Amino acid sequence: QVQLVESGGGLVQAGGSLRLSCAASGRDFSRYAMAWFRQVAGKEREFVAASRSPSRSDYAHFVKGRFTISRDNAKNTVYLQMNSLRPEDTAVYYCAADITVRDEMDYWGKGILVTVSS
Fold it and tell me: What is the phi/psi pair of residue 31, to 5°?
């Protein structure tokens, strides 16, 4: 079992930055692919970024160049650095873990709200 807890969300002005953190409990954190998804009320959840291995990260096209995913296996933590935020980035952001990255990841955090004001 893996438990995930997100932190670092909040309100920021357009053009600003936030860093989300996701702390994982459980063993073998380094085995898991870690990902961030987001969801706006009334819309489907969408993929944002994933850390599949220390050397491979993937991003949705709409965040590429603005967001960076990273992980610290010693701290069992994955981060999402979000720069140049836009109002359309407003959403609940979820951390997820699985052996591979897929829409229905095995483990999910409860989510954290990010609000970007214009």
Answer: -75, -20
Amino acid letter at 51?
S
58 Cβ neighbours under 8 A, 6+ residues apart: 49, 50, 52, 101
- Quick one: DSSP state of residue 111? -
Structure tokens at 68: 């960076």
Which structure tokens are listed for 9?
């969300």
Cα distance between residue 21 and residue 43, in whole Å: 24
Helix, strand, or coil here: 94? strand
pLDDT tens, position by position, 36-65 = 999 998 999 999 999 987 789 999 999 999
Contact 22, 33 (CB under 8 A): no
- Mean pLDDT across 63-84: 96
Rounded distance between C-alpha atoms, residue 118 and residue 115, angstroms: 10
